[in-house]
Specification:
- The protein is about 70% helix and about 0% strand.
- The protein is mainly alpha-helical.
- It has a domain at about 1-25 and about 190-270.
- α14 runs antiparallel to α15 (about 250-260).
- The chain is elongated and about 60 Å long.
- The two termini are about 30 Å apart.
- The model is unreliable at about 10-30 and about 50-60 (pLDDT under 50).
Length: about 270
C-alpha cells in the first residue's frame, strides 16, 4: 500500500469516527422530521409486507399474482405493494417480477417499479444485474447502472471498483461512479478506509472527489476532511472550494471554524 495514501485514509477515517458516524444517510437536528417521515413510510411498507406474508403460498411470485399489482390503485399503492413483494424475492423470482412490470403502461411508474426490482437484484447478485443493465437498450441505462453500483459499492467496494473499469464508455463509467459515491456514503467508515487505502494515488483522488461531493450536503465537515487528503493540488482546491462555499452559506460559524482549524484559505473566485 502506498504510505502517503494510507496516511491520508487514516486521517480521514479518524475524522469520520470523530464525527459520530458521518457515514449515516440521516443526521440529527435538521433531518429529524425527514427521518420521521421515512420511518413512517417504512413502517407502512413493513405492515404491508407482513400482510402479504400471510398468503398461504409464500413465494414472492405467487404473492405478486394475488396482489395483482397492475390493478392495485394509485401509483404509490402499486409501488408499495411491489416493494412488499420484492423484499422477499430470490433470484428465481426476478424473471416473474420483471415480466409483470412489462405490463405496466405508465412509463414513469414502470421505471419506478423496475428500480425496486433492480435494487433487490443488485443486493442478491450485482454482477448479473450489471450485465443485464449494460447489455440492455433502455435510455435509462446510465441511471440504472448508477443504482446497481450504489448498492454494489456499499456491499463490496473493491469488486465494484474493478467492475467499473470494465464498463464500455466514459458516460456509463461516470454514471456508475456517481452511484458508487452514494454507496460509499452509506458504507461503514472502516470498510471505506480500507478500500481507499488500496487505491493508486490517481484513482484515490478521483474516488475521494466523488465521495466528498456525495456527502457534502449532509456532512460538510467530513467531506472537507476527506477532500483535504486529495494529493493533486488542482483537484483538492476545487473540491474544497465547492464544499466550503456551500457550507459557509448554510452553516457559516461551523464552516469558518473548520477553515481556521484546518488552515484552509478559500479560493472561491479562482478555481484553477
Amino acid at each position: 500500500m502506498n504510505c502517503s495514501t494510507g496516511l491520508r485514509c487514516s486521517l480521514a477515517f479518524c475524522a469520520g469516527l470523530a464525527l459520530g458516524g458521518w457515514i449515516l444517510p440521516r443526521s440529527r437536528g435538521a433531518d429529524a422530521s425527514s427521518g420521521r417521515a421515512e420511518e413512517a413510510l417504512h413502517a407502512s411498507i413493513r405492515t404491508e409486507a407482513h400482510r402479504v406474508a400471510e398468503v398461504p403460498d409464500r413465494r414472492p411470485a405467487a404473492m405478486a399474482e394475488r396482489l395483482e399489482i397492475a390493478d392495485a390503485g394509485t401509483p404509490f399503492a402499486q409501488a408499495r405493494y411491489l416493494l412488499a413483494v420484492v423484499e422477499h424475492a430470490t433470484l428465481d423470482d426476478l424473471d416473474r417480477l420483471l415480466a409483470m412490470i412489462e405490463d405496466v403502461d405508465d412509463a414513469r411508474l414502470k421505471e419506478l417499479q423496475f428500480e425496486l426490482v433492480l435494487r433487490r437484484w443488485a443486493q442478491l447478485d450485482p454482477e448479473s444485474a450489471c450485465v443485464y443493465v449494460e447489455t440492455g437498450r433502455s435510455p435509462a441505462k446510465p441511471q440504472r447502472l448508477a443504482t446497481v453500483f450504489e448498492i454494489w459499492a456499499s456491499q463490496s467496494p473493491r469488486r465494484a471498483w474493478k467492475a467499473l473499469a470494465q464498463l464500455d464508455g466514459e458516460r456509463l463509467q461516470a454514471a456508475a461512479l456517481d452511484g458508487m459515491a452514494r454507496g460509499w456514503a452509506s458504507a461503514r467508515p472502516e470498510i471505506m478506509a480500507a478500500f481507499f487505502a488500496t487505491l493508486a494515488p490517481r484513482d484515490y483522488d478521483a474516488a475521494v472527489v466523488r465521495l466528498a461531493s456525495g456527502i457534502a450536503e449532509r456532512h460538510p465537515r467530513a467531506a472537507a476532511t476527506w477532500a483535504m487528503t486529495i494529493a493533486d493540488d488542482r483537484r483538492r482546491i476545487r473540491a474544497l472550494s465547492d464544499i466550503t462555499a456551500r457550507w459557509v452559506h448554510d452553516e457559516p460559524a461551523a464552516a469558518m471554524q473548520w477553515m481556521l482549524e484546518s488552515n484552509w484559505h478559500p479560493r472561491w473566485d479562482e478555481h484553477p
